[in-house]
Amino acid sequence: MRIKICGAVRTADVELLAGMDVDLVGLRHGIGGARGGLRTVHPGRSELAADAFLRLSAHVRATRRLRPVLVTTVHDVAWLHDVLARSRVRWVQLHGHQSPGAVRALKSAFRPWEEPVTVVKVLRVRNGDCLERALVADYERAGVDLFLIDAEPGGGQSGQGQQSPTEPVLRVADRLTRPFLLAGGTSARRDTELAPVVRHPLFHGIDVDGETRVGNGGLHPERIEAVRHAWRTHWVKEWMTPRRSAATGRFEVADPVPAAPVPLPYGVRVPFLPRGCARQAV
């Protein structure tokens, strides 16, 4: 299970996360189409200017255990390729309404001998429905490696910690053939409520932002640890607990990998799995 913390803006944030059990760090650059100038996206969250993004992404890579993720809403493939090439960041979260064609063009923009880019595409859940439902198959054919299922308020921006109801999330997840991250209200108190999502074979981890912050918007180590402990403990518990099989009537430990293995995104480390949950070769 992977944990992504979004919205780092200072080197102190990166140093804090490097000392914790976190895998991915989201760096916002090019939100709302803007390409420069530090500006507030919404309370407690800031977009990085170009030089700040380059400096902070290099700091993340220097930790050798954290992986930086460019979080952007920009549609311009040439701009995206330029930013990724200059920063040497190879994970990008497309948090806007980028088309499947843009995904395909971005994936093909990197030469075969270059390190490929891992594309994470947001899927918004609003009023119990997925706004991009009709495009899921197109995104997968275009080369999306990982989806991020995020709640969205009635008419606003996603990524503001809205709680994703379990049933709509599962309906979206059942349409996928790629792994997904869960975002939207993934606090330490909701790990049990969202247990059916954790048990989904394509569940890959959580994306957290507001739940790890204090009043001034800064990252708080105790909140990060509370989220990490609750979700990782619950994930291991779900996959280690034997459950009665409907087919055989015997208690068995479920295999979190589906019968048709899904290739993991480039660079993703295979997590430790308890005995009986061995990952199939891909």
Automatic annotation (TrEMBL):
Keywords assigned: Isomerase
Designated name of the protein: Phosphoribosylanthranilate isomerase
Gene Ontology BP annotations: L-tryptophan biosynthetic process
InterPro entries per the UniProt record, alphabetical: Aldolase_TIM, RibuloseP-bd_barrel, TrpF_fam
Species of origin: Streptoalloteichus hindustanus
GO molecular function, one term: phosphoribosylanthranilate isomerase activity
Catalyzed reactions: N-(5-phospho-beta-D-ribosyl)anthranilate = 1-(2-carboxyphenylamino)-1-deoxy-D-ribulose 5-phosphate
Highest rank taxon of the organism: Bacteria
